Amino acid sequence: MITPRPIESRADLRTMIDAFYERLLGDERIAGLFAGLDLAVHKPVLVDFWAMILLGEDCYRSNTFQKHLHLALERRHFGIWLGHFEATLDLLFVGERAETAKMRARSIAAIFESKLVSLGRIA
Length: 123
Known about the structure:
This protein is mainly alpha-helical. It has five helices and two strands; from the N terminus they run βααααβα. It has helices at about 10-25, 40-55, 65-70, 75-90, 95-120, and strands at about 5, 95. The relative contact order is 0.18.
């Protein structure tokens, strides 16, 4: 049994990202979006992104939304993505940073979905 603990380091963020992607890639409803993605390159970028948000590190300098425009996203993908993200955090972590991560992920999903709707990319 895993005992959830606070997020305190980049190592914790790597654990979070590894577990999250294991869930995503194991879900046939969303795994196809990640076909061809070089996880050895992508995961460290995600660690930087979450280190910026949760640890206050100045290490991420990219337009997150633009990086995802090429994907064939559907409305249902946002709920699936968010469900896996929150379940991963609930399994592994507790505390203020875990709650902040969930809040920010909800916000990111809502903003991405709203922007894609306004661009006519999803109905």
